[in-house]
Structure formats: C-alpha cells, structure tokens
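One such shown below:
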Amino acid sequence: MAGSNEVNANESKRVVPLNTWILISNFKLAYNLLRRPDGTFNRDLNEYLDRKVTANANPVDGVYSFDVVDRSTSLLNRVYLSARENGAHWGINELEKPLSTTEVIPVIVFFHGGSFVHSSANSAIYDTFCRRFVSTCKAAVVSVNYRRSPENRYPCAYDDGWTALKWVQSRLWLRSGAQSSRVHVYLAGDSSGGNIAHHVAVRAAEEGVEVKGNILLHPLFGGEERTESEKLLDGKYFVKIQDRDWYWRAYLPEGEDRDHPACNVFGPRGKSVQGFVNFPKSLVVVAGLDLLQDWQLRYVDGLEKSGQEVKLLYLEKATIGFYFLPNNDHFHSLMDEMRSFIHS
C-alpha cells in the first residue's frame, strides 16, 4: 500500500474540506438507510433522496445540455455541449452537422459511479461534474444511464455501456476534425463507472471499435483477498469493507465470489489485454485514502505488464469523491491531468 499508515477515524475531518466531508457523509448516511441485510435495496427511497436536475437548453457556465432516450434500452443519455461564444443557441438543424469541420472535439462517454446501485446521469452531483468536464477539457460529454443492481445484475451495466458507445459512434453530429469522418471517443467513469469503462474498452478492442482513451477515477475493483489498504483503511474514510462486499453481492451473478472477472479483472479468472493493439491508453486516478487503492494499483500494474499505455495519478491525501467540489488542490490536479491526457 502506498501512503502513510498513520490514520484514524477522525482524521477525515481534518484532511477533507468541511463542505466535502458533509456532502460525502450525507451520501454515506443515505446509502446505509437504503441497503437491506437480505441484499435487497429500497429503490423508491433512493429515487426520493437522489437530488436530480433537469437539462438546460439555456447555457449554464458556458455549457448547455439536453436528454436523449435510447429507443433500444429506454435509458436516458444526457449530452453536454459547449455554448457558442456569441451566445447563440444551437438549433435542431445544426445538430445534424458535425461538432467542427476544422478542429478535433473529444467526446467523453461518462459512466457515473454509485457502486452499480446508486445515482444516475441526471443526479445533481454528476450534472455539475460533467459541465466541468466540458469546460476544462474543451470536449463534449455524453453521460450514460445504465441499469442498476440489484434489480439488474452483471452484465447489464456493461451491455448498456456498450450500447451507449455504439450510439455515440453513430451520431453524425458528434463527429469532428478536418474531414469530420469520425467521433473522437474517450471513456470515463468514477467508482463503478470506472469499472464499466474498463470492460467496455475491452469489448471495443475485441470488436475493433476505436476508443482513444480511458479515464478511471478510483475505479471499483476488488477480489477475495483482503489487501493491506483494505485492512488499514476499513471504516476510516467514509467506506467499510462490508459495504463494498454488499455491493458486489448485489451486482455479481448469484453465487459468485469477488474473484469473478467483473471485480478482479486481472485475477485468476480475468481477461488479459496483452496483445490488444486497439486497447486505449489509460489514465488511472487513485485516492490515497481509498481502501480499494491496492486493487487500483494492481490494475495499473496489470496494464503495464500487458504492454498497455497507462498513466497513474496518485493523490496521497485524497479521499473518494474529492472531485465533486473544486475546493481542494487534488481537484485542480485532476482537471489539469485530464485536460493534458485528452489533448496529448
């Protein structure tokens, strides 16, 4: 495990800015209310507690958004585009045209976190984050809804992610570049969304669908082994091992353990990406106070041993969710790294 072992239960209040600590603590309290010991989940209460926001046809902070429902899945995708400099609105006819015929505009397909169970593309925290993505990275963003567990187990989230990627690739109005011949796609996600991004990228490489890069923010990986970071950080920075175990039981097929390749991607039953010439370059962001960091660092090591291009951003004093509010140095480091990664 990287980082200091000198941690205790109260240190999170000193390490984390107060408003971030309150935000994440409130999420933790709500999540504890929603999970049931028998493995079921209070979806109705979840939808009531999850603050959602509508799309904005009028630009907010230079970004406007609209929702598109995929007919094949009935799932909502929220599209974020940068507003024009003159403030004029995009019209329906203009959405039939490429994003640009002169410059490359990256399109980030974003999968929200929530341990496969919580949140959605129109949750307020992710709506704000995706707007910052657009502004910081000078990109378009498509935030994806996917079917959530425990009602919809593996591989539903991966199938929905794959469908979303193909939908984005087929949109003429998301193309850019001198010839406007293709969509320049990146995948991104936090927590379970980072896990989904990996598995969708693997499928894309297998089927010859181009993805230019993968951005994984403290991705949700694991295994049957209890790692050093899991033992040392259990319950100390918002998350308990028993909570993570509950989410895996809710997502994995009935009777499976955490060495299932969905969870332990480079474990004994995992799928190697060695020799995958089309597997995208990766930026993996690891929070040094996340109890799953050892699994995330093993993921980076697995990519390197497979000959894949990967960059690690290790933020020693960061906790999960540090990027939801721009009130810490880690947030700005992340934004700088993402911008550099996408435009390099």
